[in-house]
Amino acid sequence: MRYDDSPPSPESASSVSPERRWFTRRSGLAVGAAVLAPTLLAGWVLVQVTTGAGADDARPPRIVMPADSPSSSPTTSPASSPTASPASAAPQAKGPLAGKTVVIDPGHNTGNFQHTSEIDKKVDIGTARKECDTTGTTTNAGYKEAEFTLDVSRRLRTVLEAKGLKVVLTHEADRAWGPCINERARIGNEAAADAVVSVHADGVSEGSRGYHVILPAKVKGGAADTAKIVGPSRDLGERIGSNFARTTGSAPANYLGSGTGLVVRDDLGGLNLSTRPKVFIECGNMRDAKDAALLTSPEWRQKAAQGIADGIVGFLGG
Ligand code: ZN
Concatenated DSSP letters for 255-278? Predict the structure, then answer.
């Protein structure tokens, strides 16, 4: 259950967060779509080059997600949320997917390691106050959770855009740190997202393995009121979990969730403040050698993105 907080590793700070431009996605999109089916390594290398997918961040300790921050606003694209994608690049969705929007939240930010005082500031998550954000964890070799989450999120975006869905990322490491958890929730709310997924990887002890999807508990307090999203979020989460298991071959976490791969939490600002169906997925344990071998594999990350995408598309009726 936790995102644990592994201490920010010093060295990780050095790896720079990539600042990719959202508009490069267009080319990545076309290439990504062509390559998608087989997920060939060669193809993905190409996608990474064109999209800049890949590097970035690690994730903090726990999933704290409060709300946020007054001023963290960073950078980014002119239009609404940071990383909204250019509508013109995507094919038109048909049927139940037409007009649907998905918000993807890459957990943490590689820059958080260098901005601990900022991310430690508390924000209001309705039911409590929590840190703006956390650094995220890393593998024992130093691969940051934030790099992992951004890479998977970009791959996920490519898959969803190929379906004609509008996709918005809460950030692309195109800001120094953050966003704070309340801001991450706000981006999904303001986009009137039909589904929101926050991508993470856990940082617990060796031997703890597998994925789990975190569902919002029913909470009410301050700006938090999840009564309307508990049901649909469970549907979304169950679909993501089962599809993730299918595409990656990973098993549900062996250290929480009683083997279901599902966990309900009431302490995450990113869920408490959401007014849209939303879940978190912890794709694996970065601190376990076997899971780390998967998480650091581009091919595996593609499978992970595909499984999450399939779950979202199924939830949306596509
Ligand atoms: Zn995380």
Answer: SSGGGSSEEEES--HHHHT-SS-E
Dihedral (CA of 57, 162, 241, 318) sign: positive
Given this model, what pLDDT does residue 69 score?
33
Q: State the pLDDT at residue 94.
A: 81
∠ Cα 196 129 2 (to 5°): 60
pLDDT at 82 exceeding the cut of 80: no
β-sheet bridge partners, residue 281: 199, 213
Looking at the whole model, is its pTM more than 0.85? no
Secondary structure of residue 30 in the 3-state scheme: helix
Distance in Å, CA 28 to ligand 1 centroid? 26
Question: Measured in angstroms, how far is the CA atom of residue 163 from the centroid of ligand 1?
Answer: 27
Q: How far is the CA of 82 from the centre of ligand 1 (A)?
A: 19
Catalytic center residues? 282
For position 70, what pLDDT does the model report? 33
